[in-house]
Specification:
This protein has 390 residues and is an alpha+beta fold. The chain has helices at 5-14, 47-54, 98-103, 133-139, 150-154, 162-168, 173-182, 197-214, 223-230, 236-246, 262-274, 282-292, 331-341, 347-354, 364-371, and strands at residues 26-31, 60-62, 70-72, 77-91, 110-115, 117-127, 186-188, 191-193, 221-222, 247-252, 255-260, 280-281, 308-311, 318-321, 345-346, 372-377, 380-385. 36% of the residues lie in helices and 23% in strands. This is Sister chromatid cohesion protein DCC1.
C-alpha cells in the first residue's frame, strides 16, 4: 500500500527525527514485481573506462570456459573479481538524489519509487598483464613452411584470422596486434602465421648472402633490388617480411631501404646453432657463432638475453638454449620452473626471464622479493626458491 504523508510523519516521530531538518520530499520505496536477486550485475569502472562507454565504444569480456574472465577495452586488459558488500545495493530507476531534490523545490511531497533489482556484490576491475602466451601457442600449431609445402595446401585447420585471435586470446585488440608484431607474425591469405624457424632462416640467409655479394652497407639495403634478385627463389612478400622483421624500414630519395638489425640477426643465428645441441662448450660456441654471422657483424653474449643461458659453474663453461617464451605465464609457476632449472640465480641471469612479468611500475627487484629469497655466495647476491621445488 502507498504511504500517506501522515504515515511518513508518524514514522519520523517514532525514529525521533525532526521533520524540519529534512528535505520536504519523502521517497517511499517498494519492491517491484520483477525485483529478483541475481538479475543485475554491477561493474565498477575507473573514469577512463567510463569515458570509453560514454563515447560509444564497447568493453569486451574475453575468456574460454576454463579461463578466469578478463575485461578488455581497446588497449588495456583487466582482471574481473567479485567484491561482496555488507550493504545491500538497490537499483531504483528515476531515484532522485538530495542534490536533485534541493534543486527542484517544486517536487511533490511524496515520491513513490519502485526497486527494480538488488545486489550484494559487484565486479571489481584490476589492470592486469594481457595473457598473450596463448597467441604464440595458437600460431605455432601450424607454422608456415613456405608456398611449396604440400602440408599447407591441404589444411585450413589451426589457421587464425584477427577475429579468431580476438575471441581466443585474453587481451585487448591493440595489445594483440602489438604482440603479433613482436613475434614477427605475418598475414598470409587473411590468416596470421608465424614462419617455421628453418624457413625463416633460409630466407634470412638469402638476404644476408645478397648483401654480402653486392657489398651493400648493412645500414642501406635496397628493397627493390632484393625483391628483383630474390624473387625467383621466394615469394616477394616473404622477402619483404624478413626485411621488416630483421631491419628498420626507411625512405631515401623516393626509394625504400632497410637498416639491418645486427643484434636480432646475431641472435637468430645463435638460436639456429644452439637448437641442435643440449649444451655447447661456451668458447667453441662463441667462435663458431662469430664465423656464422654476416661479414661486419659482431656477436656479443648480451644479444642472447632471454634466449640462452651460460653455465659458469661447469668446467669448461657451457651455454644452452632457454627461451623465455617457453616458460609459464603465471608468476609462481614461472619461478618454480626457473628454480627447477637452476637452484640459485644472480639477478643479472634471472632478469631476462622475469622482466616480462613486471606489472605497471613494478620492478624486477620487487618480484624477486616476493617470490625468492636472497643469500650471499662468494660475495655475490643470489636468489633461490622460497618453497621446496619438487
Amino acid at each position: 500500500a502507498m504511504r500517506s504523508r501522515a504515515e511518513v510523519e508518524a514514522t519520523l516521530r517514532t525514529a525521533k527525527l525532526n521533520p524540519a531538518e529534512l528535505l520536504p520530499a519523502a521517497q517511499c520505496l517498494s519492491f517491484g514485481p520483477q525485483a529478483g536477486v541475481g538479475e543485475c550485475c554491477l561493474l565498477q569502472l575507473e573514469p577512463g573506462l567510463c569515458a570509453e562507454l560514454e563515447a560509444g565504444r564497447s568493453l569486451v569480456i574475453r575468456g574460454e570456459k576454463d579461463e578466469q574472465a578478463v575485461l578488455c577495452s581497446k588497449d588495456k586488459t583487466y582482471d574481473m573479481k567479485i567484491a561482496d558488500t555488507s550493504n545491500m545495493l538497490l537499483f531504483i530507476p528515476g531515484c532522485k538524489t538530495p542534490e536533485e531534490l534541493n534543486a527542484d523545490q517544486a517536487s511533490c511531497n511524496i515520491i513513490h519509487s519502485q526497486i527494480a533489482g538488488f545486489s550484494n556484490s559487484y565486479w571489481e576491475l584490476r589492470r592486469c598483464r594481457p595473457k598473450l602466451k596463448k597467441l604464440r601457442k595458437l600460431l605455432m600449431e601450424d607454422p608456415y613452411e613456405g608456398p611449396d609445402s604440400g602440408k599447407d595446401q591441404a589444411s585450413t585447420m589451426s589457421k587464425y584470422t584477427t577475429e579468431d585471435l580476438l575471441s581466443l586470446v585474453q587481451a585487448s585488440e591493440e595489445e594483440i596486434l602489438h604482440q603479433l608484431q613482436v613475434i614477427d607474425a605475418c598475414k598470409i591469405k587473411g590468416y596470421w602465421r608465424i614462419l617455421e624457424f628453418d624457413y625463416e632462416m633460409k630466407i634470412l640467409n638469402h638476404v644476408t648472402q645478397l648483401i654480402d655479394s653486392e657489398s651493400w652497407s648493412l645500414s642501406k639495403v635496397p628493397l627493390r633490388t632484393c625483391l628483383e634478385e630474390l624473387g625467383p627463389l621466394e615469394p616477394t612478400e616473404m622477402i619483404e617480411h624478413i626485411l621488416l622483421s630483421y631491419g628498420r624500414k626507411y625512405t631515401d630519395d623516393g626509394d625504400v631501404y632497410f637498416e639491418m638489425r645486427e643484434d636480432k640477426i646475431c641472435r637468430a643465428i645463435a638460436q639456429m646453432l644452439l637448437q641442435n645441441a643440449v649444451k655447447f662448450n661456451l668458447s667453441e660456441f662463441q667462435e663458431v657463432w662469430q664465423q656464422s654471422v654476416p661479414e661486419g657483424m659482431t656477436t656479443k653474449l648480451d644479444q642472447l638475453k632471454g634466449l640462452a643461458l651460460v653455465d659458469k659453474n661447469s668446467r669448461p663453461e657451457t651455454i644452452f638454449l632457454l627461451k623465455v617464451e617457453d616458460l609459464p605465464e603465471d608468476n609462481q609457476e614461472r619461478f618454480n620452473s626457473l628454480f627447477s632449472i637452476r637452484e640459485k640465480w644472480t639477478e643479472v641471469d634471472i632478469t631476462p626471464y622475469i622482466q616480462d612479468l613486471c606489472a605497471e611500475k613494478q620492478t624486477v627487484g620487487a618480484l624477486l622479493t616476493k617470490y625468492a629469497r636472497s643469500s650471499m655466495q662468494n660475495g655475490v647476491k643470489v636468489y633461490n626458491s622460497r618453497r621446496p621445488i619438487s
